[in-house]
Amino acid sequence: MNRNSGALAIALLSPAILLFVALTIYPLIRVFALSLFATDYGFEDATYVGLENYSDLLAHRFFRTAAWNTLVFAILATVSEVGIGLILALMVNGKLPGSRFVVPALLMPYVLSTMVVTAIWRAWFHYDFGYLNNLLRSVDLPAVEWLFDPDIAMLSLVLVDTWQTAPLTFLIILAGLQSVPGEIYEAADVDGAGPRHVFFGITLPLLMPYLFLAALLRSVDAFKIFDKVFALTGGGPGQATETLSMYVYRLGFKFYDVGAASAAAIIMVAISGLLALIYAFKLAGNKS
Amino acid sequence: MIQKRRDTVRIALAYLTTAIFLMPILWMISTSLRPPIDYVSNSISLIPSQVTLEHYRELIRGDLLGKALNSAIVAAGTTILALGAAFPAAYALVRIRFPAKLDLVFLMFVLLVKLTPPISLAIPLYQVLRTLGLLDALLGLIIVYQVYALPFAIWMLLGFVRDVPVEYEEAALVDGASLMRRLRSIVLPVMTPGLIATSVFLVILSWNEFAYALLFIQSPDNFTLPTFIATLITEDETFWGKLSAVGLMASLPILLMVGFVQKGLTRGFGGGIK
């Protein structure tokens, strides 16, 4: 249908293309250009410095710490979110009285706004009156400096992120579990396969595309993390939870070092481009 | 027998985990109803010793409703603009044959935008908004939110357009129905559930967005709910009751919407795999 319809295609796509040009293509070119200059917001007295911003960044301890923290956060968050999502899905899949209420209840944290989530957890993490430390004290365990101990602050962020988004991985993995035809299990049952066998031999391999999708979605999002860090730790204590997004924000909007912030932003775009490629190959692979 | 016992354990664990997952939300509800004196304690009870509505009253006397209205305007504007641009695009990408796989190139680009960290576009977007005179304006937010909303909407609508049987449209075409006519009387009606599910996601996304709202809105009058909440978090964290009440009130519209279209949402999540 509509074989010779170039004009029609352009007409239908033009609103989207217009928005993309104004909001992403032009800004991306602009960020790249800015990354080659030493400049603040004026741009009038900008000096061309070539790739100096990049080499400065890569040599700078704070940037490397932010990159390292981002990687650590992304790995910890992805692993714990996919792991907990899988456990939740396995528990809920199958006969579960009241599952009509359990599934929506489990989804609630995901629907809450991140600012609401951080508000709750700021209170839970409070050293003196926070709910978590109250729980610990009630069973005679020592209280924890959830957000102010440099060794723990990152784990606290992971905990909050996991609480909020494990419901999403749960939903994806549950969809995967429910797409496994029941006959396969019946056949395995007839063959006398044990539950461990069934899980590792049948369920897990069939779930792989779903686990992969969940992991990819979560790692991409974890890589961008900004708002939780901003509102829970502000990147602290010290540099302990400073991520790349926080770093770009600070450089660009607090110190007005627009050139360096742009270079860091371009590095982030490059990394997400790489993730996009993996994603695309995976999607293409699923189709064939 | 063993199978049955295993099932009982699994079900019990499922309930327990759900309860643990819900505790922070129960805590929020309970704290929003507690008098301030109550939460400076070491109690782990989630039941308030005394119930008060003072936090809610205080918020409504303040400007909570104004912030909620800002959020609603931004959410509605973002959703309408994104659907208006994404629906024709998705329709074209599914129904029209593109030369040289240009459609795939376009989709790859959409994907790249979807994965790009929003903060990395913030500096030039700041300049774009300043040039347009839309810094510190809700309309400015509606426009920059397309960075998130448009790729998402295109990607999600693709699947729903694919589900509209092409035969219906071909039959209408033989009868001489114009494109507008076909869209209005065939494609849109069949896609209604998909459009609703997509809208719900777009509303949630813009209702909850924080980074751009923080960077591009300066005057408190124009704050959306997340930026308003952020000011409460950083100023003084002992406003727990007020904070919980805001959190709950900001979440209710979204929770209601999600409950309303739950089935469509699950489908939407599954759509990414197909």
From TrEMBL, chain A:
- Cite the Pfam families for this sequence: BPD_transp_1 (PF00528)
Q: SUPFAM superfamilies annotated for this entry?
A: MetI-like
Cited PROSITE patterns: ABC_TM1
Biological process (GO) annotations held by this record are:
transmembrane transport
Where primarily located?
membrane
Q: Where is the ABC transmembrane type-1 domain?
A: 67-279
Where it sits in the cell: the answer is: Cell membrane
Q: Which family does it belong to?
A: Belongs to the binding-protein-dependent transport system permease family.
* Official protein name in the record: Carbohydrate ABC transporter membrane protein 1, CUT1 family
Tell me the organism. Paracoccus seriniphilus
UniProtKB/TrEMBL annotation, chain B:
Which chain regions cross the lipid bilayer? 12-30, 72-94, 106-126, 138-158, 186-207, 239-261
Topology with respect to the bilayer: Multi-pass membrane protein
InterPro entries named among the record's database cross-references = BP-dep_ABC_trans_perm (IPR050901), MetI-like (IPR000515), MetI-like_sf (IPR035906)
BP GO terms, sorted: transmembrane transport
Q: Does the keyword Transport apply?
A: yes
One Gene Ontology cellular component annotation? Answer: plasma membrane
What this protein is reported to do is described as: Part of the ABC transporter complex MalEFGK involved in maltose/maltodextrin import. Probably responsible for the translocation of the substrate across the membrane.
Instruction: Name it.
Output: Maltose/maltodextrin transport system permease protein MalG
Q: Which family does it belong to?
A: Belongs to the binding-protein-dependent transport system permease family. MalFG subfamily.
What keywords were assigned to this record?
Cell membrane, Membrane, Sugar transport, Transmembrane, Transmembrane helix, Transport
Q: Assign the protein's first listed, main location to one coarse class.
A: membrane
Q: Where is the ABC transmembrane type-1 domain?
A: 68-261
Species of provenance: Paracoccus seriniphilus
Indicate where this protein resides in the cell: Cell membrane
